[in-house]
Amino acid sequence: MPTDISRLVHNVNEQGFTALEKTGLRGQQDQGLVSTLISRDLSGSDDLCVSWGRILPGQHHLCHHHPDASEFYVVISGAPLVHLGDTDYRAKPGDGIYIPRGTTHGITNDGDEDVNLVVGVSKPADWQFVADE
């Protein structure tokens, strides 16, 4: 019996992006775009969620943490300022960044090109987003 790939393969260019929807502690809007590629609802995953993220020039993805999930970023393009705990790191294409559960993190695109990154979370859905700013 052939494998049904309709739930297993998703393409960012076909799906497009949606705007991030979280709100910060002072009512500020989270900024950036996301296209989910692997998740519980989309793919039937029971152990992870993977998305393509895009942060446009001048945008800031709010600093936050996940008490119930670890996360990673793989930078595809751009040179964002990645906030990790109390440290800021100037990322570059090819960087893999691990964010342990409970670690405050966020991204600022202070450059003039789009930041594209692959984002993975260690839960397939329903992880907690706790704003830290």
Quick summary:
This protein has 133 residues and is mainly beta. It has one domain (19-131): Jelly Rolls, CATH 2.60.120.10.
Explain this structure to me?
With 133 residues, the chain is mainly beta. The protein has one domain (19-131): Jelly Rolls, CATH 2.60.120. It contains 2 helices and 11 strands. The strands form 2 sheets. The chain has a 6-stranded antiparallel β-sheet with strand order 1-2-3-10-5-8. A 5-stranded antiparallel β-sheet has the order 7-6-9-4-11, with no helix packed on it. It starts with 11 loop residues before the first helix and ends with a strand. The mean pLDDT is 96. Residues 54-119 form the Cupin type-2 domain. InterPro entries: Cupin_2 (IPR013096), GPI/OXD (IPR051610), RmlC-like_jellyroll (IPR014710), RmlC_Cupin_sf (IPR011051). Keywords: Metal-binding. It comes from Arthrobacter gyeryongensis.
Give the number of helices: 2
Mean pLDDT: 96
Provide the CATH topology.
Jelly Rolls
| Major sheet: arrangement of strands | 1-2-3-10-5-8
Do you know the CATH architecture? Sandwich
Structural class: mainly beta
Low-confidence stretches: none
The major β-sheet equals:
6 strands, antiparallel
What share of the residues does DSSP label as strand, in percent?
A: 35-45%
What is the CATH superfamily label? Jelly Rolls
The number of domains: 1
Q: Helical percent range?
A: under 10%
Number of strands: 11
What's the N-to-C terminus distance? 51 Å
Order of helices and strands: HEEHEEEEEEEEE
- CATH C-level label: Mainly Beta
> Rough shape?
globular
Task: Please tell me how large the radius of gyration is.
Answer: 15 Å
